[in-house]
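A further point concerns the way the authors explain their paired sequence and structure data. Each protein is reduced to its one-letter sequence and a matching series of backbone shape codes. An entry of this sort, consisting of the sequence and the corresponding backbone structure tokens, reads as follows:
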Amino acid sequence: MKVNARPERIGKRKDNPLEISDEDVELIRNEIAPYWENRNLGAFAEKITPKFCLELLYKGAFYVATEIAGISHFSADYPFLLEVGLEKIKEFAEKRIYEFENLELTEPEDIEKNLFYKAVAIVCDGVINFAKRYAAKAKELSEEGEGERKEELIKISEICERVPAKPPRNFWEALQFIWFIQIALHMESYEQGISMGRIDQYLYPYYKRDLDSGNLTFDKAVELVGCLWIKTNEIIPLFDELLTIYFAGLPTNQAATLGGVDVDGEDATNELTFVMLEATKRVALRQPNVHVRISEKTPKELLEKCAEIILSGKNTISLFNDSVIIDGWLNLGVPIEDARNYSTVGCVELSPGGKSYDSTDAALFNIAICLELALFNGETSFGDRVGYEFGKIESMDDILSSFKKQVENLVKCMIITCNCFEVANQ
């Protein structure tokens, strides 16, 4: 994949220009771009993807296949991660590696599993050490600090020393745990739609315990959640000039799901739901995407709080209809407890609560151009003959038949492209 590195354009381009120093321009041009030219996912994907499919992709008018940049748009299983911590996950991976090395696992598929577990151990080490560097920096800054700020930095250092290696013990540690994992996932994946799931549900026990012990107040919780909300805005994907048109504003669409019903079908709204909505109101930034699940059992107070924020005009609130969505899951054969425990991903996508590696926005399809191809016998208005040559159009039925054929052909090409990109990601 040929990299046309023009980093000097980053600060001058029409759409979404970003400040960049002359030193960074030279670093990208002379070191970063040449290094990654043949090592990026796209370079490998191009070797296994049909040429015609790539041509359609790079024309930018037929479909967008996002997995060329990595797999994203999923909801992480934070309840599990918070419960065990990364050290335990690493220990489990090392146990499996030991079993393989000592010939206790001998099936052919165990070879691939062993490689996976080695990767898990490496990733856990990387994230833990990454957090410990923050701990060391906070401790260093605390030695120069004074008064309240000094005490705050000492506490930050202690928290970063513990999480995400170990399970969090309190609300602040749990929030910090989530943020380290969010950073790690964005480093590894395509920076879109990496979502936090039903955050007011799995964090509520930490909040309630701290509240009851007197170690936390409603306002302090709002402040801490607000800090997490602010941090989500620090991740900015560096799209090229074409993609900045498709994804104007360079959003990351990290979704946080609030409210809804529990696995028994009862209202799951709690005080932390209101803490997070108040933080959303006060921060008033574009991230995260705050998705509120609404059911017939949703209390009036929650509806009024959502209305208050929406009416302010400074919000990232979206409302999701529980009854319709849950029925939809059930129609697809999803167990009722998973259907009721769904979370949201990215903009409007749905996920069965950390039980699926969704990649819900793997491709975007331009169905309108299929009508253009149908009307002009497989040719676009800008002169590309890429569609099915139907022949002479003499009736509405001919238009519909040609349209269906154009859709079929382009969707097939998009699917092939996505499948090739998934292989490239493995």
Residues 262 and 423 are 37 Å apart (CA to CA).
